Amino acid sequence: MKSLIDVQKKLLPDLLQVMQKRYQILQNIRIMQPIGRRSLSNNLGISERVLRGEVQFLKEQNLIHIHPSGMTLTEEGSELLNVLEEMIKEVSGLTVLENTLKEKLKLKNVIIVSGNSDVSPWVKKELGRACVSTIKSLLKGNETIAVAGGTTLAAVAEMMTPDKKHENILFVPARGGLGENVENQANSICAKMAKRANGNYRLLHVPDQLSKEAYQSIMEEPAIKELIEIIRSSHIVLHGIGDAKTMAERRKTTASDFEKIEKNKAVGEAFGYYFNQDGEVVHKVQTAGIQLDDLKHIPCVIAVAGGASKAKAIKAYMKQNIDHILITDEAAAKELLREL
Fold it and tell me: Which end of the chain has the least Cβ crowding within 10 Å, N or C?
């Protein structure tokens, strides 16, 4: 395929540009469907006049349906988009970028979607779709999947669809509640993901931040103890990676701990651990659920984080040398490569 693409770049550069543009249109429709022409035009940053011609072409090729409620992909359009995906990655250099980051970060796999989720909300949904696709490729049945909180994992839940392999899957929260918007808490995301996948779920009704005394007391409760053991022995863990200061604010961190996080130059956070740029843990919050050491014994750990602003956090966290699958976007990947 690569040699054919190289020939096309030389002889038919316009053809590749047209293909990439139509791919982006189909990709946006898949993520946002049903979507109107005006919304699609705003998402893509192209005029409605130009888009009208492209939409008409795609309709004539039986790749999209046009309804009063908006545009949707046909089955043929969905199949074509899946075929185009790898080709577009090759053309845009994302395949090379994936392999480079996989090697430099010593990861199990790296999956990159186009765009920048810092500026384009639909990219977060594309991260979610890529994560769901990855999960489905790993499932054999009877697995336990632990799910963390945050807006990126909420996007994964939105993109989850049923699968025959999901029937005996148990979804559990990877940690307790952060006291943030309920839809972004691990419990809510876990329940939503299970419902959309036709799986089962258990919830952990424990605050994420606990004093040492409260932690020890709660961990002795038989029901909590049993659920924590299930969570820590999960087959798959899905989690995000946060910017240290942002996460400290979301956790309503005390002034003294916030000062400690800033003083020690923390740049990233995951599971209540704050990391500096060298990957050293500079602060730890007492949390109920998955601990950093648990990840070393879990068969598959998937980190989902995008946006150029997350590059430093991703780099710091990945120095833990856990055999991760990283799902990120183009902007984060390019910034991460510069950081490395």
Answer: N
User: Cα(291)–Cα(268) distance, rounded to whole angstroms?
Assistant: 16
Rounded distance, CA 227 to CA 220, Å? 12
pTM: predicted TM-score of the whole model, two decimal places: 0.88
Cα–Cα dist 218/214, whole Å: 6
Residue 53 CB contacts under 8 Å (≥ 6 apart), including other chains: none
Angle ∠(213,178,190) on CA atoms, nearest 5? 115
Contact 237, 246 (CB under 8 A): no
The DSSP secondary structure of 304-324, one letter per residue, reads E--SGGGHHHHHHHHTT---E
DSSP string, 226-280: HHHHHHHT-SEEEE--EEHHHHHHHTT--HHHHHHHHHTTEEEEETTEEEETTS-
DSSP letters for 114-182: SS-TTT-HHHHHHHHHHHHHHHHHH--SS-EEEE--SHHHHHHHHH----GGGTT-EEEESB-B-SS-G
Cα distance between residue 65 and residue 243, in whole Å: 40
> Dihedral, CA atoms, 299, 159, 185, 124, nearest 10 degrees?
100
Taking residue 334's Cβ as centre, other Cβ atoms within 10 Å add up to 18
Query: Residue 134 contacts by C-beta under 8 Å, 6 or more apart in sequence?
Result: 111, 302, 325, 327
Q: Which residues contact 226 (CB under 8 A, 6 or more apart)?
A: none
Other CB atoms within 10 Å distance of the CB of residue 217: 12
Q: Which amino acid would we find at residue 310?
A: K
- Residue carrying the six token digits 């492209």: 54
Query: Which tokens in the block code for residue 148?
Result: 């963390």
According to DSSP, the β-strands at 170-173 and 70-73 are: unpaired
pLDDT band, very low/low/confident/very high, at 214 (cuts 50, 70, 90) = confident
